[in-house]
Amino acid sequence: MFTEKRSSMLHGVLLIALFSCAAFYIGEAQVLKEISFSPMIIGIILGMLYANSLRNHLPETWVPGIQFCSKKILRLGIILYGFRLTFQDVVNVGMAGIAVDSIIVAVTILGGIYIGKLMKMDKDIALLTSIGSGICGAAAVLGAESTIQTKPYKTAVAVATVVIFGTISMFLYPIAYRSGWLDLTPQQMGIFSGATLHEVAHAVGAGNAMGQEISNVSIIVKMIRVMMLVPVLLILGYWVAKKAKSGMNADGSVQKTKVAVPWFAVGFLAVIGFNSFDLLPVPVVDAINYVDTFLLTMAMAALGAETSIDKFKKAGAKPFILAFWLYVWLIFGGYMLAKYLAPIWL
């Protein structure tokens, strides 16, 4: 019985792995490379296409394998994501990038939660959308989803918002800079881009379109934002535990709520620390990053496979309205911080 259950679970995992392979293959298309459409985004689209077409024909015994990908494999992917970062990156960009990033992350997340409350939005979707906009797009949404354990369709909705507005910015920033609409030095533009673009891929794409000097600063500032995912997840884990209603013991006393520490976030930080010592050859790190992207793509495809159009309709337009206001803040707030705050430390 156990062997049969394990075999059925493996079928679900292999199905998602095939989606991930397809996402990598499709991602090789030149047009998708030019707009920095990562395999992760393609993976969730493929998963959603499947969810809204052939999903009902899937044996129920395969479902645990899909859920394994959206939970366990996701956490492993987040931990290995640390191989893209080093603490030296923080030192290289200095206090200017750290200060701007800190304000952007804090205001975006707290402001998004507050706006979501005013709009009477689903709290989980508002939180995921805010964290995705504030930190690093899809990867941040996935990290937060693993901490609050919400429904897959809510994660897919949040990911959709950051993909849409992040892609717009990736094309808008180079045009605005080269047209002279943004009165920023190359270093300030790098800080502005890294502190406000949603995905790492967006920061790379936009930075390369504006020149090497801007690109280098932009990517480092973006990576510092990624590092801020760790304290945000730790705070989020504590907040979720405190918010959970405690039950009553038989003697009438209140049960103590255990704080669930997102250990994958600690693992993510530990990997960054290890990678900072530069102990592994570059080809090995590149191989790990490739495998990590594959694992995260599997997680995205699994989340997409649990997301139907009906659930998007259920979420309504509010998540996209919230993402739009956060996008407005990122552009105007980020510009003011890069122009007037960053020079204090440059």
TrEMBL record:
Topology versus the membrane:
Multi-pass membrane protein
Q: Which InterPro entries match?
A: UPF0324_pro, UPF0324_YeiH-like
Q: Which organism is it from?
A: Muribaculum gordoncarteri
Residues that span the membrane, as ranges = 39-58, 90-113, 125-144, 156-176, 219-241, 261-281, 287-305, 317-338
Which protein is depicted?
YeiH family putative sulfate export transporter
Q: Does the keyword Kinase apply?
A: no
Query: Of which family is this protein a member?
Result: Belongs to the UPF0324 family.
User: In its keyword annotation, does this UniProt entry include Membrane?
Assistant: yes
**Cellular component GO terms, alphabetical:** plasma membrane
Task: Give the primary localization class.
Answer: membrane
Keywords assigned by UniProt?
A: Cell membrane, Membrane, Transmembrane, Transmembrane helix
Q: Where in the cell is it found?
A: Cell membrane
